[in-house]
Design brief:
about 200 residues, homotrimer, mainly alpha, globular
Amino acid sequence: MISYYFNLFGVVMFAISGALAASDKNMYKDLFGLSFTGFATAVGGGTLRDIILGSHPIAWVADNNYLIAITAGIILTIIFKRQLTKIPKILLVFDTIGIAIYTIIGMEKALALHVAPLAAVIMGLFTAVMGGVIRDTLINEIPQIFRKEIYATACIAGALVYLVLKYFSLPDLWSAVISIITIIVVRLTAVKFKWSLPKFEV
Amino acid sequence: MISYYFNLFGVVMFAISGALAASDKNMYKDLFGLSFTGFATAVGGGTLRDIILGSHPIAWVADNNYLIAITAGIILTIIFKRQLTKIPKILLVFDTIGIAIYTIIGMEKALALHVAPLAAVIMGLFTAVMGGVIRDTLINEIPQIFRKEIYATACIAGALVYLVLKYFSLPDLWSAVISIITIIVVRLTAVKFKWSLPKFEV
Amino acid sequence: MISYYFNLFGVVMFAISGALAASDKNMYKDLFGLSFTGFATAVGGGTLRDIILGSHPIAWVADNNYLIAITAGIILTIIFKRQLTKIPKILLVFDTIGIAIYTIIGMEKALALHVAPLAAVIMGLFTAVMGGVIRDTLINEIPQIFRKEIYATACIAGALVYLVLKYFSLPDLWSAVISIITIIVVRLTAVKFKWSLPKFEV
């Protein structure tokens, strides 16, 4: 039940992130471009996860509340966009909380369907980052996960922590909370100290 | 039954639209590039809809007639492309009829599977426009739905009209015909008077 | 059973091809970009096929060995990339063997699910080439299948040969071997003699 409202909260956050990114680009500035980008950012990751898992119906197809949450996010963006663009650090924090929650929600869903553990890690990662990949592709930028900060790596780290804690039979709620905190700490620390992964020269 | 032939007619139209767009671009001018773009344009929207709805088998996978219709569209394009490019207005009319029919076919399919009403609107929209999005992405142009004319908005307007008429228990055929006419009128009027949606400045 | 190991071998090859392509591009040079591109190249085609066919669970979701094979391919790329880039001809041969095997594996899977014969040809083609399309899209290049050499055409030729041989009731193994050889011969001959498909001028 709590995870349902967490999920809707994440949907609003990602819809804002998508609509805001679109409103920055000339070609997507109209109401449709804004809404489409917000929509695709909010549900893209979870939709791809459910399609790969073959899990139907997909949440937003069966439940109007998701599309209402997205509409709320888009309206908030239009009204408050001037204020929102002035506080990039708050957006970073919200985005980080969003991907942390989504990673664990995605993993739990995959594990409940008895997928291979490594595939569950990828399903958690997809849930968290694929909406953003679709957003960045739509506005014609290199997806954030491929730019230098630790982003996907934080999700993968948290997902692996979750697997280990579950293996040692920690209660699910504790595993989830510890993993979510792991992702948030890794990501914010990486941003602060400008960590990045090693590069390979050919 | 009629809707089956309508559907195949739409497939031919969209295949022509895709093949014609590809033949305009240097890199996609060979037979394979032409055919692939025609194929993806014709079935892309419906395939995405069925994948999201989890509705299998997808029409063109189970029924050879779809691929035969696409082949016909591609052959027509190769033979008549010089004539076709001289009549952009006729193409606009056919494209508009195509997206109008596809919107309502997509909505009816979604509603028959008992999805949330707002999700059915999106399924109708996806059926109509996603083939074109794939086409424009393949030939490396900004998708038509994001350019300034009223395009997706016409489909959404017609889909909402359909929902309202259905709510008031109009017979399905009447609801469908009125909604299709709505889409065609909104789109063609918007093109004629160069209507566009409001833009948002950051 | 043999086809299982063939499949894993193909996964390693495609993972190397993806990781190598990513390491050539500045933006994807870090460990995550490399791994993601290798992963998407290796499983993209088969995943798309299974999603379109509605066939679940998808192999790499249910079976950890696929992700282990991809990891092996990525590690091999990192260790041996200098040597690998010096032998483009060997890579061409491996890639050709890979797409030949994948075409027939994809077709057999589709035909076992009783799809329309022409759709089975497309499913074979998708299995073989869509991983590469995803790879080239990620590294921002025109997909190889749209560049001038005979590439997809070789797969389609082999797939049609397979359909004909099956129609004449040849044993499956013979049909598979002859079709695979057809693809390899057509592709390598086309590369050697720089064959290409006819182009169409508007």
